[in-house]
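ugh ok fine here u go
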Amino acid sequence: MCQLRPHLEQTKFVEQVRYQMKEGYQLAFLEVEKQAVAIAGFRISTCLALGKFLYIDDLVVDELKRSHTYGQQLFQWLIEYARNHECKHLSLDSGVQRFAAHRFYLMQRMSITSHHFSMEL
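structure:
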């Protein structure tokens, strides 16, 4: 996860995850030879626009293990998890600079459906 979120302090990571878990955040990972090679942080929510959906907050494959289908395997697991929990949509946001991630999401048959606007406060 530190490869995706380098701004997080390792000492506060567990505390932050536990806090988010109170709001429905969950972690799933793919393990190969007793090493996590891919991890996803996600939550199930509901909104007027989509109904019930699974939102992927974080998805990363170890940079040394990419191109081994680990990301695809975890992504497919997330789709099945969403379906099993009666979600109608699966969604995520991806930074505009993450071109490799965008290629991956498009290969997984995701569509670019909106622009995300934000403002630092």
